[in-house]
Amino acid sequence: MEDIFCKKFNDKLSVSYILLSHMEQNVFNSSKRFNLSLSELSMLEVINKNPVDGRMISDIATELMIKPSSVTSAVNRLVLKGYVERHRSLKDARMVYVNLTEKGRHADRIHKRFRRNMAMDILKDMNEHEKNMLIDCIERMNNFFMKKIDRNIANANVFAKHR
User: What distance in Å separates the CA atoms of residue 119 and residue 6, rounded to the nearest whole number?
Assistant: First the structure.
């Protein structure tokens, strides 16, 4: 019985991931104003968490759990597309910050509105108990994912030290 449930859960989780990704990409593909991938949208969201000062490449990489070199490449593309700009710190010229342009802020607002509307639509027919249960389940999944990621990072670091 548990194997059947596990298979059903796995199938539903996989389909949910595909559908969510597809929906998000379609929203931005249908708009001729934006030429952004899902990973670029995520990067705009992370950069906009500090809209005044901006974010350093290393901070963005840490939050997105990707390599700084990948962030640098993505930021270069986003600069060319007009969604972000770089600026040096006035206090320490070695430090470079990334900020959203007005075009980047607009794209981030639309993405956030899409996500908020989607969440509201999903929750609208649920009672409080179902909403709380859903939140609890997602939190447990996220905690599981974080533990696996932390363990994989720790294992990779141990492996790298022994090479």
Answer: 25
3-state DSSP percent of the chain in helix, strand and coil, to 5: 70, 5, 20
Per-block average pLDDT, block size 10, for the chain (163 residues)? 85 92 80 82 95 92 92 96 92 89 94 92 96 96 89 60 49
40 closest CA partner among 87, 13, 76: 76
Q: Give Cβ neighbours of residue 65 (< 8 Å, ≥ 6 apart).
A: 149
Query: Rounded to an integer, what distance in angstroms lies between the CA atom of residue 61 and that of residue 58?
Result: 5
Q: Label residue 141 exposed, middle or buried (CB < 10 Å: 0-12, 13-18, 19+).
A: exposed
Burial of 90-116, coded b for 16+ CB within 10 Å and e otherwise, reads eeeeeeebbbbeebbbebbebbeeeee
